Every structure is written in C-alpha cells, then in structure tokens.
UniProtKB/TrEMBL annotation:
Gene3D superfamilies: Glutaredoxin (3.40.30.10). InterPro entries: Glutaredoxin, Thioredoxin-like_sf. Residues 71-127 form the Glutaredoxin domain. CDD domains: TRX_superfamily. The chain crosses the membrane at residues 29-50. Keywords: Membrane, Transmembrane, Transmembrane helix. It comes from the Bacteria. Residues 127-150 are annotated as: Disordered. This is Glutaredoxin domain-containing protein.
Length: 150
C-alpha cells in the first residue's frame, strides 16, 4: 500500500529540502516556486490523479459486460501519467487496474508483455496493447460499446 506513495513522497521531500536551501540562501520567491513545482510533480505522480482502481478480475468482468477498455497502470510511471492526462475526462470511462495493488493485474501485464511489467498496458476486446498512443485509447473509449455478451 505504501509503495504507491513512494514517488510522490520523495518529490515532496526533495522539494522541501531544495526550497529550504533556497530560502536560507536569501531567495524566498525562488524557494516558493521550487516548492510548488515539486508539489505539482508529487500530485501528478500520486494515485489521486487516476480514476479509482479495481481488481483485474473485476475489471475483466466489467469490460466483458460493457466493452470498455482496461488500463493496467502503476503509480510513478511517466507513461501512465501521460496517458491519464491526455485522456482527460474520458479516462473515467476505462477500467483502471493498479498493478502494485493487485497481483492478478501484475500477472496479466506480465503475461501480455513477455514477463515484463510494462505499463500502461491497455486491453481492448481481449487484446493487450502496450503503451498505446493516447489518441488511439481515446478513440477506443468513445467508440460505441457492444452490448453485454452472453
């Protein structure tokens, strides 16, 4: 659980240390700007930026019912952040699985990527796509979903 907060915490701590140094060097404006930049990086890399994660099995069940893509991700992954930010509000339509919180999700990613935990891995209609173009994922999210499968 705590591993997901490692990167954001490190950004916040490093920013605090750097800002303190700038402040004592006589540059309070620079210290403030530096701290805000590091806090922004911490926020973007935190799990709070991503839609609520579900387990891999639940995501597969939901995807089978509504046809929406599954996005496997992990906190601290720059490519996952890029995908999330480029999708904007459309990201909420996908089923997100944090592979650091869900061992079944990590296993699904390893199975799709020759044993590597390469994220983001997006599963559309049962087919995995590793680090796809965000525009393509957005198109998949806006495509009409097939009805529930029998």
């Amino acid at each position: 659980m705590m591993r997901v907060w490692t990167v954001p915490t490190l950004f916040a701590l490093c920013g605090s240390v750097a800002a303190t140094g700038e402040f004592f060097a006589g540059d309070p404006g620079g210290a403030t700007a530096l701290l805000l930049a590091f806090l922004a990086l911490a926020g973007v890399n935190s799990p709070l930026v991503f839609p609520r994660s579900v387990g891999a099995r639940e995501a597969q069940r939901r995807s089978a019912a509504d046809g929406r893509p599954i996005v496997f991700w992990r906190p601290g992954c720059a490519y996952c952040v890029r995908l999330r930010l480029r999708l904007g509000r459309a990201a909420r339509a996908a089923h997100w699985v944090d592979i650091w919180r869900d061992p079944a999700g990590a296993a699904a990613v390893r199975a799709a990527n020759d044993g590597n935990e390469t994220v983001p891995t997006v599963v559309v209609a049962g087919r995995p796509h590793t680090n796809p173009d965000p525009a393509w994922v957005r198109d998949q999210l806006s495509a009409p979903s097939p009805g529930p499968r029998s």
